[in-house]
Amino acid sequence: MQTTILLVEDDAVLRRGLAELFAREGCRVIEAASAREAREKLDQDVQAIVLDVGLPDGDGVSLCRAWREAGEHRPILFLTAKDEELDVVRALDSGGNDYVTKPFRMQELLSRVRVLLRNPAKPQAVRRDSFAVDESRMQIVRDGAPLPLTLTEYKIVRMLLERRGVVPRELLLEVLWDDGGRFIDDNTLSVHMSRLREKIGAEHIRTIRGVGYQWSER
Q1: Which pTM was predicted?
Q2: pLDDT band of 177, cuts 50, 70, 90
């Protein structure tokens, strides 16, 4: 099976060089030049993410943290232009698996990616009450039976189940995209929550006014 890598780098010259490097290794490369593109292009086929810290519409550290909080478990390797300890700590604390500092040797980067692919992070099974996340099928199951949820609804419920405590609206808005790839605005998120309450029971989703939502076990 061909390895697929999501390469997130805003420097077009470096991105093209890295894409060619991975392609020569037999990898399929999905390129993104911004955080927005990265969110759009992260699909089920991606097995590893190479992520630049500095992006034109944000930073890789925040993007990585949002992905991890949303339940993303695939390995992430950071590209950083700085070698200061604080930057490295921020990158790894956000959920990164490894990093390389620019300028770097191409073969060193390739070697680090190979290690991540050999030892991928394994998602932990998430269960709350009678609900569970079936990551492989992208489904939420209740008492062993899959719920009839859209992809967006699945992502919302997964975030609520995986995160102990309140999930801020801002986090949901940042990482969620609907089935057509369009960004979910605040009003649309409210509509999704209303439909989810009808499908799984209003008692399971608490609205924390001015903050976000929280899963309730009853």
Answers
A1: 0.60
A2: low
8: left (phi over 0), alpha (psi -120 to 50) or beta: beta
Q: Residue 180 pLDDT > 60, yes or no?
A: no
What single string gives the DSSP state of each residue in 69-107? HTT--S-EEEEES---HHHHHHHHHTT--EEEESS--HH
Three-state DSSP at 144 gives coil
When the pLDDT of each residue in the chain is averaged and rounded to a whole number, the result is 85
Please state the separation of Cα 215 from the chain's center in Å.
20
Peptide bond into 120 cis (omega under 30): no
What Rg do the C-alpha atoms of the chain give, in angstroms? 18
Spatial CB neighbours of 200, under 8 Å, sequence gap ≥ 6 = 131, 140, 142, 147, 157
Determine contact, residues 110/21, Cβ cutoff 8 Å: yes
Could you give the domains of the chain? 4-118 (3.40.50.2300), 127-215 (1.10.10.10)
Q: How far apart are CA 180 and CA 151, in angstroms?
A: 10
Bridge pairing between strands 205-208 and 145-146: unpaired
Sheet with strand 167-168: strands edge to edge:
167-168, 212-215, 205-208
Q: Give the pairing of strands 212-215 and 58-59.
A: unpaired
